[in-house]
Amino acid sequence: MTDTDFVTATRTFYDAIAEDYADRFRDVFPAMPLDLAVLAGFAGLVGEGGEVADLGCGPGWTTAYLASRGLSVFGVDLSEAMLAIARREHPGLRFEQGSMLELALPDGALAGVVSWYSTIHTPLDRLPDLFAEFRRVLAPGGHLLLGFQAGDEPRHHDRPFGRPVSLTFERRRPEHVAGVLEDAGFRMVSRTVRAPDTEKGELVEQAFLIARR
To answer: pTM for the complete prediction?
Structure first.
């Protein structure tokens, strides 16, 4: 699959399901205390040292939470439909359309980068390029936070919410992702893995990695 193929497929998928997704998961995000604790820890590491980008921000929930923790944060997403929700629900924050693989940011512009369940559609062989782009836009000493489903087998979603779209969600081993990050020039700071919350429909463990440039 080419860059254009997977980027276009991801954008098309989320444009089609944006409102359904927001309605389904709006109340789930604030009810995940361990996940919020990781985000709060990341915010503490970054402090007031500069700007933070929430890449693959979706409806802007993570962006807004980090802003509530005192960070100067903005969101970036491929999907204009998702961005429309983010701008509607969080009018005081900045949201921009763009691709994580080609960020319209100068080198070393950011104190922090968050990719909260947004690397999961990037093919494995493109992760080194993606992490190199994250490193490029981070200032020396800047922090990166990744959240993703842990595991070995991807999950394919076909016609979610009855919409005529499909997309594969990759699951990856935290130790493998950490290795790719280290190869890209990051130093690991924290690795957190929690059990699936089956009451909220999770099927696999959830992984959260914090690394430093």
So the answer is: 0.93
